[in-house]
Design brief:
Layout lengths: L1 E6 L2 H10 L1 E8 L2 E8 L2 E7 L4 H13 L5 E10 L9 E9 L22 E2 L2 H12 L7 E8 L7 H11 L3 E3 L2 H10 L4 E9 L5 H27 L3 E5 L4 H13 L3 E5 L4 H9 L7 E4 L2 E4 L3 H7 L2
Parallel strand pairs: 1-4, 1-5, 5-10, 6-8, 8-9, 11-12
Antiparallel strand pairs: 2-3, 3-4, 5-9, 6-7, 6-10, 11-13, 13-14
Helix pairs in contact: 1-6, 2-5, 3-6
The structure holds S-adenosyl-L-homocysteine (SAH).
Length: about 300
């Protein structure tokens, strides 16, 4: 399982880049992709650039060329719900393009003509993980679920933000989420968007955005880091004392940033039986989810976690 992580701007991906290990870099369509391990998971990180076209191209490449199974957008947004403040966090229930407007021809606001689908629901499991991760950040940090609007517009106007709230009952507005969401839906991949408020999309938005983007990016990062550690299948290493290959497996997992639990088969008959159930005799046996491998072989271990 590989997770795609997208931010639109440098500030939104900076902390991930610092934390990632053994990163391989590839550039496609002008976007740089960083493959590596983060929070015990195989991830592909990228900066899409601002706007829906950039976000769409980036998401499709993540799926086609990098084989990601799920996508998380991490970043900042302007608050639309009147009770949301700078620093608060919105986890997407769904995403809509607010600038898709074919209302003169009788379509609904946000509706993509000739389709019944223009509201893109986030994956419920990812939403739940993000909310739980957010709740662990501390009581003073306000995390809500809600609709996220996207449009190729930086909203910085009180009347406009009020109209968006009334029209779409949204929580926040930004410039990429609904594009990521639609591409994921078209490819049947689960997604979630995690946005912390950098501004209130009002007359002060341009000033607040500059001031609070760093803080807001940090908050989204903290949530995604937590949720990924929950998502990751923690490895189990069945081993014995003095086994050289067992040590090599543990060193490999540590270098990859993959969490693991050690089970010494000499201390428990049950552990030996677990190894046998996977069809193996002897150690080391490394287990990830429902897959297992005996011995130390980096290429084979890599497959267990990909
Ligand atoms: N990097 C440029 C442009 C930023 S555009 C700059 O520094 O000026 C704003 C980015 O933040 C977009 O990626 C968008 O998703 C998000 N965003 C934050 N507040 C927003 C708002 N009020 N309206 C629209 N997008 C907003």
């Amino acid at each position: 399982m590989r997770v795609g992580i997208i931010g639109a701007m440098d500030e939104e991906i900076a902390l991930y880049l610092e934390a990632m290990q053994e990163t391989k870099t590839t550039t496609k369509a002008g976007i740089t992709y960083y493959e590596g391990t983060f929070s015990g998971r195989q991830v592909v990180l990228c900066k899409s650039g601002v706007g829906k076209v950039n976000a769409s191209v980036c998401t499709q490449i993540l799926i086609d060329a990098f084989g990601v199974d799920q996508v998380i957008f991490t970043g900042v947004a302007g608050a639309v719900h009147p009770e949301l403040n700078i620093g608060d966090i919105v986890v997407s229930t769904d995403c809509v393009q607010h600038d898709m407007d074919v209302t003169p021809l009788g379509f609904k606001p946000g509706q993509i003509p000739f389709t019944e689908k223009w509201i893109w629901e986030a994956d419920q499991h990812l939403v739940q993980l993000a909310v739980e991760a957010g709740q662990q950040l501390g009581e003073d940090i306000h995390v809500v679920t809600g609709r996220i609007l996207s449009g190729d517009q930086f909203v910085a106007d009180r009347e406009k933000v009020k109209a968006l709230y009334e029209e779409f009952a949204a929580s926040c507005t930004e410039m990429e989420g609904a594009a990521v969401a639609q591409v994921c839906a078209m490819n049947e991949k689960p997604f979630v968007v995690v946005r912390s408020m950098s501004d209130k999309a009002d007359g002060s938005a341009h000033v607040n955005f500059v001031e609070f983007t760093k803080l807001a990016s940090q908050r989204s990062y903290a949530i995604v880091e937590q949720m990924l550690s929950k998502l990751s299948p923690k490895a189990i290493v069945y081993s014995t004392k003095g086994c050289v290959d067992c040590e090599l497996v543990k060193q490999w997992l540590t270098a990859k940033g993959i969490e693991f639990e050690v089970r010494d088969v000499m201390t428990s008959r049950a552990y030996q039986e677990e190894v046998e159930r996977f069809g193996f005799m002897g150690v080391p046996v490394t287990v990830a989810g429902d897959k297992a491998f005996k011995g130390f072989h980096p290429d084979e271990l890599e497959k267990l976690f990909s």
